[in-house]
Amino acid sequence: ITAAADAWAQGAAALPKPWQPQKPVLPVEGMRNILITSALPYVNNVPHLGNIIGCVLSADTFARYCRLRNWNTLYICGTDEYGTATETKAVEEGLTPQEICNKYNAIHTDIYRWFDISFDYFGRTTTPHQTTIAQDIFQRLLARGFLLQDTVEQLRCEDCQRFLADRFVEGTCPFCSYEEARGDQCDKCGKLINAVELKNPQCKLCRGVPVVKPTKHLFLDLPKLEERLEPWLEQSWATGDWTANARYITRSWIRDGLKPRCITRDLKWGTPVPLDGFRDKVFYVWFDAPIGYLSITANYTEHWERWWKNPQQ
Q: Start and end of every Methionyl/Leucyl tRNA synthetase domain (predicted)?
């Protein structure tokens, strides 16, 4: 309090000169380097106050604070553009998925600019860098034996000649008999649903009746990582600033045992899977989207690895 009172009494003239980083902003030896990201907003809607308050505004406030402290700060964000929700919105509006992304990326950019959010760079995930980095991470996982192949039962619409993602299926809930349940969840009773469990399923694209057929997918072999993950978590919990909620959820996953997680989808809109036998599939958006933080930084600067592969700074 005394230090704050002294600084206030001396006035702005006594403050250190503001740090002016070079463009692009890169880590500087001997300085405190801060990389800030906020959750990538999904591209299929117009942002509202909840989106801004929930993640963008808090990160913006922190970025401004860091710059006032003369810390070398980079704040990046961008629109999350792949996945089923984009395909669904494209069907609704009679546009291609790329046209939907272009339309809503521009709307997002304008709104954040109007709010004066201080991004150093606001990008998007539908870029060549995203494909390159996501496929490189996939190849590394494959080479190290962290991927599995398995066959799953899935609904296929023979009229549309495609396997149906959860959002493209509608039917009667097997739990409460609600007639407009989605292929992933019932909005009436809230229960999670496997699409093949729906009664009287319908393809939302053509209203045809889909059939259950087997399809091959790739899975991340999470059980293989458990041995290495547990000691890392113990160390991180002891030294890091985890919220009580984050600790609880993580502990429950570990306690119940990690399960293999599917990372591919039978969709057209997404990052292509670079492996024979799976080239007609794309990566599941939750495998692909977090890599967007890296690829957006790579679109900002060719030296992106100095931010993402630089633990010493």
A: 34-311
